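Appendix C: a fully annotated inverse folding record. The material below is reproduced so that readers can follow the format used throughout the book. The structure is listed first as tokens, followed by the designed sequence.
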């Protein structure tokens, strides 16, 4: 049996579960720009739903749910998945608030890991320490004081790493608690890689009960790997540092085959936001990505439109990732149709308080309309991929194309802001992306 036929036979036998998650809405103002406070600091709604398979609505274009290769050769990725029981496959998904809460991405992660094995939780970031929402399946916390910076801060007082977060200890000795939470899926790890800039010296590692663990620290230029002598689900790391240390995140690995699905998301992010870091490609290199998925464009649709500049921003990020990771495939996704808030004013006559007669007042009414900027940005991503040999997943088309936002609203798949999804919506989005990836692994191009 050929290698291709083996993978087809294996995929045909797979059972496919699904998972449900939840996220809170954002707010938008009348000028079309996302309200800064709500855009960058929204809160995740806890998941209260059971793990169920979400039916795919009729308005979803299932015949469009595939990768547009644009000449990119996915043979290497198919081979990597075929060998996933011997060495791990690594996927890095970069995006905005749709990715930060790790709702749709966690659906893809769990489905792929169910099929091919769980190599570990992968990348986790100090989002909560930085004062923003953090995925619910891991812990990244500390009782120490830290100087923090987020990607969307106007000014950066310290270096910001590839995760879009940066924490600097306020003292020369600090400690961090990092691990996975106790959920239905047991997710132990035996290796933790701390990503940082500046010198870091590991002094002690203890488990959740305070027991000292044997470990070996392997320093490198941009990270320090901690090898544990046994599996753990939560560790406390005590370390010393000089004043130049900044930490960006950690990767939790079981040192076993399977799939890593790393997610990097920042509320309000754009292509330009990640280009501002300047080292995203180098940052993700230690994750050894086989595939890098970039899901951006929604936030650009709430600002001034300059398609030529938008394409240059895409190219800058793609080139940055590609140069540092020449063996990785890149997949761009398009944003789906969404709404923006529209404020209109009307005059009304109201009775004067405590006085006779009426007075005229101006009232502001909030309505919503389709964000017409999404469609040209979607086309720009499609055009860029076609012109530069970069694969594209056209989520705009898959989700239903023009008019899809109304269908999603009527089906309770959009959140109240009509930009983000409900837990059902994100579960559906993640399931469809998973299906498209699986289709790509079965296909030949």
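Designed amino acids, in order:
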């Amino acid at each position: 049996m050929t290698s291709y036929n083996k993978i087809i036979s294996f995929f045909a036998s797979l059972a496919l579960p699904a998972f449900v998650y939840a996220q809170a809405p954002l707010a938008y103002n009348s000028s079309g720009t996302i309200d800064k406070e709500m855009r960058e600091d929204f809160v995740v709604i806890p998941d209260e739903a059971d793990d169920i398979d979400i039916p795919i609505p009729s308005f979803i274009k299932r015949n469009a749910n595939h990768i547009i290769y644009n000449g990119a050769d996915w043979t290497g990725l198919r081979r990597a998945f075929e060998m996933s029981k011997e060495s791990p496959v690594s996927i890095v998904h970069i995006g905005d608030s749709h990715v930060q809460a790790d709702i749709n991405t966690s659906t893809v992660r769990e489905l792929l890991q169910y099929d091919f094995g769980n190599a570990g939780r992968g990348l986790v970031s100090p989002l909560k320490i930085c004062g923003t929402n953090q995925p619910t399946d891991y812990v990244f916390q500390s009782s120490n004081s830290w100087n923090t910076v987020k990607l969307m801060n106007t000014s950066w007082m310290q270096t910001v790493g590839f995760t879009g977060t940066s924490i600097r200890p306020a003292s020369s000795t600090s400690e961090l608690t990092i691990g996975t939470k106790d959920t239905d899926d047991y997710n132990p790890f035996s290796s933790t890689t701390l990503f940082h800039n500046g010198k870091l010296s590991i002094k002690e590692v203890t488990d959740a009960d305070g027991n000292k663990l044997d470990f070996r620290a392997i320093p490198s230029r941009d990270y320090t790997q901690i090898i544990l002598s046994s599996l753990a689900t939560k560790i406390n790391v005590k370390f010393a540092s000089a004043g130049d240390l900044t930490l960006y995140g950690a990767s939790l690995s079981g040192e076993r085959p399977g799939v890593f699905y790393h997610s990097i998301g920042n509320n309000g992010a754009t292509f330009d936001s990640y280009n501002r870091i300047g080292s995203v490609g180098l940052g993700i290199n230690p994750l050894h990505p086989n595939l890098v998925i970039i899901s951006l464009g929604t936030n650009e649709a709430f600002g001034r439109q300059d398609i030529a500049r938008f394409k240059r921003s895409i190219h800058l990020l793609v080139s940055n990732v590609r140069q540092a990771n020449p063996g990785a495939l890149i997949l761009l996704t398009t944003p789906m149709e969404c709404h923006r808030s529209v404020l209109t004013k009307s005059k009304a006559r109201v009775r004067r308080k405590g006085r006779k007669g009426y007075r005229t007042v101006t009232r502001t009414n909030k309505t919503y309309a389709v964000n017409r900027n999404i469609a040209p940005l979607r086309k720009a991503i499609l055009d860029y991929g076609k012109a530069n040999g970069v694969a594209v997943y056209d989520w705009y088309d898959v989700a239903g194309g023009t008019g899809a936002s109304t269908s999603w609203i009527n089906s309770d798949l959009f959140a109240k802001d009509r930009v983000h999804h409900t837990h059902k919506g994100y579960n559906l989005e993640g399931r469809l992306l998973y299906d498209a990836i699986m289709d790509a692994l079965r296909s030949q191009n």
